[in-house]
Amino acid sequence: MNDAPRISYASAGVSIEEGDRAVELMKEWVEKARRPEVVGGIGGFAGLFDASALKAYDRPLLATSADGVGTKVQIAQRMDKHDTIGFDLVGMLVDDLVVCGAEPLFMTDYIATGKVVPERIADIVKGIAQACAESGTALLGGETAEHPGLLGVDEYDIAGSTTGVVEADALLGPELVRPGDVVIAMASSGLHSNGYSLVRHVFFAPADQGGAGWSLDRHVPEFGRTLGEELLTPTRLYTLPCLALAKDVEVHAMSHITGGGLAANLARVVPSTVSVRVDRSTWSPQPVFGLVGSLGGVAQEDLDLALNMGVGMVALVAPDAADAAIRLLAEHGVQAWIAGDVADAGVHGDGGTVTLTGAHR
Q: Are 306 and 158 within one domain?
C-alpha cells in the first residue's frame, strides 16, 4: 500500500480558488475601462468587440502592438506597490499605435506569477484599467497564470497586446516627412519603462561592481523623494494628446521614445531623403538621468542609447504648425518644445539618420 500523500493541483502550487477570487476583485476596475463597442464582460474565453463601428471608415487600417515593461516590475515587487505598473504596460502598448495616427480600441493583458495573491493581481489590473480609461482604450480581457517553481511566490511579469484603427488617408509615417519639418519634443515623466537593467545596476550594485549600493528607501535630495518612488514613476500616456495633435495640426510623423533612445527611435520614421538634427541644449532632463550618468560613470552616448533622456514622444510637423502644436499639447497637459529640424539628406548626416548635437542645459 502506498502511504505517500496524494498530490493535487493546489499542493503543486496552483490555486484555482485564488485565481477566481482575483477575477472577482478585478471586475470593478475592468468595468471602468469599457468602451461602448465592448460586448459582454470578463470571464469568457474571448473578449468581444463590436467592429461595426469600422463601417464609418472608408478604408480602416488595423494597427497592433505587443509589449511588456521589462525589469521595472522588480521595483514594484521590492516596494510591494503594484497599482502603477499597469500605466507602464498600457503606455508601452497604446503609444506605439498612436505614432501612426491610430486610435487604440482595446487591449488584453497577461500576468504570470509564482503565486496568485488576489489583492496583488487586482492592484496590477487596477493600474492597467485606469490607464486604459485615461487613453480611451477598452480592457477587453486577459490571462493570469500561476507558475510555481518557475517564478518565486512574490515574482510576476506582465505583458499585453493592443489593437487600434486609423483611416488609410490619415496614416502618419516617413513618406510624409519633408525638409523644413520641425521636431517637436514632448517631455517624459521620467525613466518610463526602458533602461532599467542599466538603472538598477547603477543604483543597486555594490561599489566593487561599479554601482552606488543605494537602497530603495534612500531619500534623494535631487528627487525630493525616495529612490524607489522616483523609479516607480508611471510612464506618461500621450495617446489622447497625440490623437488630438494628429487631428488638428499638420503632423507628418511621430515616434515613441522607448528602448534604443531618442535618435534610434526617431530614425524609424525618417525617410532616406532627409536627415534630422536634434539639439540637446533645448531641454534639461530630469535629475534621475544625470544621476545615472554621474554615479555610474555612464557616457552620454550610452545614456542616449538606453534612456529617453526626458523626451517620451516626438512629432515631426510642418514648420508653420509648430507653435500650434506646442499650444495644443500644453492644453492637454504635455510640455513640448522645438528640439530640432529636418533637412535634405546630407545636411545633418546621412539620409535617414538622426544626429544629436549640443549638451543638455
A: no
